[in-house]
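ARCHIVE CARD
Drawer: 12
Card no.: 0347
Subject: one protein chain, sequence and derived structure
Cross-reference: see card 0346
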Amino acid sequence: MAATRSGVIRRLLGWVALLLMPVSVWAASWQILVVGLRDDPRYERKTLEQAFIGKPTGRPLVAAQIAIDELKDNLQDSGNQLKLQDLQWDGKSTTELLGEINKRKAQVLLLDLPVEQQKALMDAFAKISTAPIVFNISESSDALRGASCHPHWLHTLPSDRMLADAMAQWLAARNWRDMILLVGPEPQDQALRDIWTASIKRFGLKVKAERKFVLSGDPRQREASNPKLLTAEPAHDVVMVLDSVGEFAKGLPFNTALPRPVVGSSGLVPLAWHTSWERYGAPQLSHRFQKLTNKQMASQDWASWMAVKSFATALDEEPKATLAQLLNNLRSGKTTLDGFKGTALSFRPWDGQLRQGIFMAHGQAVAGMAPVEGVLHPKEILDTLGADEPESLCKRR
């Protein structure tokens, strides 16, 4: 009798042990490779110390690791894990870069590269038999979403056109329609001018005067470098400044001829992320990032975090999906995402851009978000920001 009881106890203990075992073991290890540019001018010490609003505060590696740590348990339950690697590319040989990507067996790339290096890599992707999923996390150029697009590229950072549309919506909603437009001397400033002018027209705003500025102490260039002279007339509601460098723009608020708000590259600025956003779990994310880095989370950091979260979400929904299936689920908009912005996000099928709200923020706070109330769209309100499907120049889908 005692022997029988002992056997029953052993069987019970065996069943308990089986119940306590993990429901799955690691089925797949996914390699995520962050590709940066060696000696990237965007991360020069002087540039980072200037800390202009909207500019990156450093390479976005930590944000990607935060996302992996947050989602580790969910992925473990589905039999997957993510591993993060870092690669600094010299920006010269795409063949060598592709070789390194293959060597590291990277299935997901987070590209922290300027536009020209990304274009070169797009062209080289034809040489890869099984191409990775690519997330652009730090370049806002519309060219990468337009004529130079690629079906494997997904963009978590907003495009320049999205930012411009957000600002134009915001101004139109307040009936601040007349503006003086100040444009810098750099080629990037002219590119921004063309994009922002299109948004201004799209939402019924008016440029009463457009002037070029220079950052100079030369008295012979006084009319082009003095904020009061540049903004004295004609009558206007707002001063819009487009300054890709940021040095002139930072000194413009409260230094105009008339008491008018400054928007664009300074004053009120459209951003993907701002650390003063205090809803939908955002404070916890910003605090985690600041604790680890001793700096505030910038838009590029959020885009890096969002890229990892996007891939992990698609993987969590279909744990045994192939890389091609995961890309299709993301690119088609089938996978919806939580970016802590209060609405479901998804990627646009026509250009791979992540639909998202844009914060209208200044140095201390978020003043609001676009799309603004009252703006309409027949299908998706977030598609009022950026190139909508009928106007997209992307042909390689």
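Annotation on reverse: The chain has two domains: 28-158+274-356, 164-269. The domain at 28-158+274-356 is CATH 3.40.50.2300 (Rossmann fold).
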